[in-house]
Design goal:
Blueprint (H helix, E strand, L loop, with lengths): L17 H11 L8 E5 L2 E10 L5 E7 L12 E6 L5 E7 L21 E6 L9 E11 L10 E10 L2 E5 L1 E4 L4 E2 L3 E3 L4 E3 L5 E6 L5 E6 L8 E7 L1
Antiparallel strand pairs: 1-2, 2-3, 3-4, 4-5, 5-6, 7-8, 7-16, 8-9, 8-10, 9-12, 10-11, 12-13, 13-14, 14-15, 15-16
Amino acid sequence: MPTAVGGTADVSKVVSFKSGPIAQTNALIPTAGTTSAHIVMNGVKISETWKSSVTYGTQVYSYRQISDPLPNFPQFGGEVIAKVPGVEVYFGEWAPRKTGVQPDKGTDLNLTSANRTVFYAGENATTVMPALVNAKYDVVGIKRFDPSAPSVSSGTLNVNYGGSAGTIAGSIAGGAGTVNFNGTNIASNGSFQNAGSIIKGQFYGTGAEAMAGIYNTGNTATSVAFGGKKQ
C-alpha cells in the first residue's frame, strides 16, 4: 500500500478493507449518514465508525479507535477509507490513536497529527496501459475528513494515452483543497506521477477503469488522497 511516509507494512498485521472494517461498518450502518455506531469485540468498544456517501457515489468509511484491539489485530488510530464505486480500489488517510482515555462518542480522528499520512490501494492494477483518447474520470479527494460534516474535493480529469506515454489534465477542488493534475505523466504499466512525484498513483483494471493516488507536498496538513472511476 503506497503511503506518503513510505516504509513497508508488517503483513502479519494486515487486515482486508473489504472483509474487515468495511464489512463491520456495513453490518452496523446500512444507510450512509452522519450517525455513528460502535464496533464491539468481546464486549469491548474498539471503535466508533461512520459511513458517508459523497460526490460521484463514493462511499467513505471512518474509524476512531477507542480501545486497544484484540491480540494480533492492528492498531488503527483514526482512519478514513474511501472506496471507488464498483471496484476494489481504495484511498484515504490515517493518523495514530490519540493519547489518553478516549470518549465513547466524538469526531476527532486525530487527523491534525503531524504523523498523519495518506494512502491508496487496490486490486487488479493496470499492468499494460490501454489507448485512451479524452477519457473522463470523476475523481474525489480526501483531506482531514470529518464524518459529522462530510466534505471532499471533486472534479473530472481528462486522460490521454497512446503508444508508450500519456498525460492527465484537470483538477479537483472543494473541501480537501485544490489539486492540479496538469503535467502528470502516465507510464506504460499504468502508474502515473508528476514532476517531483508530488502526485503519484495507479490505474486499475485491464481497461484502466479506475484510478487512485496521493498528492503529497511533504506537509501532512495539505496532503490529499484521491480516487475515481472512468465515465
